[in-house]
Every structure is written in C-alpha cells, then in structure tokens.
Amino acid sequence: MSRECGDCTLCCKVLGIEAEGFASAQGEWCVHCDKAGGGCRIYDTRPEECDLFSCLWLQQPELPEELKPSRCRVVIGWYDDMFYLYVDPGRRDAWQRAPVKDWIQAATSQGAPVAVSINGKVVWANDSARRIVAARGAGQG
Ligand code: SF4
Ligand code: SF4
Prior knowledge:
alpha+beta, 29% helix
C-alpha cells in the first residue's frame, strides 16, 4: 500500500526552493505552505522541483511510521548519489535521537553514504559520504 503525505509538510521547510519566483532558504517555511497541515496552497501550480520530490519515508512503506518527517523532524532524501538528512532547525538534535539515529546506524553499517544537513550546512557525514565528496574534489583539481 502506498503512503501519502497527509498532514506532513516538513519538506516545504527544510529543503528550500530554488525555482524562480518561489525561492526560499533551507530551514525556512515556504510562504505558500499552510503550516497548520493544509499543505501547499498553490498545489496545482507548484514548481516542478516540489512536484518531483518525495522523501524516503514516502517511497519505502517498510520504513517505520516513527520516521514520518512530521514526527521525527527529519526529511531523508536522495540527492547527488547520497542520502541527505534535512533536519528541522527547530529540533536540531532530532538526527541524534531514535528513530533517526537508528536509521543512520543501519544505513552506515550497510555502507550507504549519509550526510546530515541543517539550514543548508552539512553538520555530519559518514565515511562513505566523505569519500564521495573527497573524490569529487580530487576530480575537479
Ligand atoms: S517530507 Fe515526505 S511525507 Fe512530508 S510532505 Fe514531504 S514528501 Fe510528504
Ligand atoms: S510551493 Fe508548495 S509544495 Fe513547494 S515548497 Fe512551497 S508549499 Fe511546498
């Protein structure tokens, strides 16, 4: 059974938008979001980047309900060949607590690259993610 966002709108705060005319910084609510749980007020005309995004919790029904972003305050996304965890700046330690901490440990033990971002700044990355970033840096030299 597929999942639905329901009352969750956290990606509209933590991801930020770059689309022209919509720009908002990571960690700041998009002005078009009904934070009371009503969702996007411009749903039919929302930018393509919003339309295309779906978080890991939405994609993988086997993930526990506790990892729903509106509950754990972290949105897990796949970007640039690694998992990015976008943390609600209102709960900066959410990634260091269960259930997110458990997910990070499991993903890391399986060798998956994981980086944690708050307000657009990476605050932690595991060895796999650091190797990817280092390899990219070397490739640019
Ligand atoms: S964070 Fe995930 S569940 Fe929440 S609104 Fe965005 S896509 Fe939906
Ligand atoms: S335009 Fe709509 S879907 Fe996109 S971030 Fe804003 S509220 Fe969310």
